[in-house]
Amino acid sequence: MAKRGKINQRQRILEEAAKLFKSKGFAGTSMRDLGGEVGMEAASIYNHVKSKDEILESICFYISDTYISQLAEVEQTATPYREKIETLIRQHIRLMLEEGAAVSVANNDWKYLTGDKLTAFKDARKRYEHGFAALIEQGIAAGELQPVNVSVALFTILSAVRWVELWYRPGRGVSADELEQNILTMLLNGLAK
Amino acid sequence: MAKRGKINQRQRILEEAAKLFKSKGFAGTSMRDLGGEVGMEAASIYNHVKSKDEILESICFYISDTYISQLAEVEQTATPYREKIETLIRQHIRLMLEEGAAVSVANNDWKYLTGDKLTAFKDARKRYEHGFAALIEQGIAAGELQPVNVSVALFTILSAVRWVELWYRPGRGVSADELEQNILTMLLNGLAK
């Protein structure tokens, strides 16, 4: 029970930290700010996390590990390429809707990672982009996808999806399902009839 | 001739300022930095521009005026909606490729505008987004476009196009024409066959 409580506290600290980093930036957030949000003395927070840097690492790698494991699963599933890409886009949108603050931190504050952690994060991003690009390439080779330039296709998808963070607010007339379905329509079928 | 020279000097100051604002941010750029780039004493720069704020205004409104006049022209041209939207996407990409630094400043540093100028810039952006959205809506009503949610379609297009600034570098294997054509294919026809 004691251990479980400690894990939950850590989880709560990470969640509040992600929200603070998103709104004030990693550099602009102090352990005192974080203490205020979780209702703990800054000193007590160190019973659950090692440092502000360690919090950032946990958030960034939670997101990049999620992306990488989703990619690995899609790569191994025997479905048409079109479906593989649809699944990745769908997962991207869902992660953003469910873990918006953490995704935002991984997108914007990863540059405050240092040393090995920075290298590992950049490597994970490259692994994801290369894996996603390879699926597009294979889909084109298999005749399932249009013969577009793979980089342009990849970055158009990632840009469209990433920006959801900046403009989408739930409850303003577009539901999460509608958002997902419409982005998939735009990217896979296009706007023109 | 003297007047012409003065206009050219002002133009050159604005171009160098856009590059500096893009790389160092508006807040991080001083008139002394700008003087260094254009090879003038900071004091002499004031013969051509009123202030750093006025430089920012000129850059932001140059870009927003360009968008608005392109939109107005497209609205008045008697072509199918699909073509209207294609033209706007194409112009967006071209402006980014030709005036990358100024577009970046208008995208990122507009928030340093103040008072009436800030209001006018936000109004111009709204006018553009509403006008673009109306064309999508009319295109759907006319049966030329897929019945997507208009906001999702608009922001997917704007996000995909805006991000070109962040990932595209000419001369890395994708030409400007190829970039334009591939983005149009993705957004209008979709990736799937």
Automatic annotation (TrEMBL), chains A, B:
PROSITE patterns: HTH_TETR_2 (PS50977). Pfam families: TetR_C_24 (PF17932), TetR_N (PF00440). Keywords: DNA-binding, Transcription, Transcription regulation. Residues 30-49 bind DNA. Residues 7-67 form the HTH tetR-type domain. GO terms for molecular function: DNA-binding transcription factor activity; transcription cis-regulatory region binding. PANTHER family: HTH-TYPE TRANSCRIPTIONAL REGULATOR ACRR, HTH-TYPE TRANSCRIPTIONAL REGULATOR RUTR. This is TetR family transcriptional regulator. It comes from Hymenobacter telluris.
